[in-house]
Sequence to fold (146 residues):
Amino acid sequence: MVFGHRKRVITRLLIVEDEPLVAFDNEHSLIEEGFEVVATVDRVADALGVLASDAEVHLVLADISLADGSGIDVARAAHARGVAVVFVTADCPEGGRAFARGCLAKPYRPSDLISAIAAIDGQIQGRPRPRRLPRGFSLFDQEATA
Fold:
């Protein structure tokens, strides 16, 4: 650890978002923060294709309402492959808690997104829950996603 920065286990992300401006903003913010965006897609079918491919994905940012289905279907597929999921949506779904590590409510700031990812990264690494979570972010209990 150099100057208080810990090594991330989440570095490669899949963005599943059907609002073009939100998708662009997320992609830009994440790349600026040093993450690699494996793909940005706007359909369940495309997300499932990325997850089924050889692409290494550490975290999926999934909107719930997509043109061809639900982000919960994406979360279910990611969870089955051991990939963490964060819902980024206006209405966090109760039925999706079993497949996701958390939910970030829209609208959110790029700094909230980065902080939410850091909280999940810490959870995966077994660090204590942060005392303060980003505005609009719910971090689900790890036991619920195991």
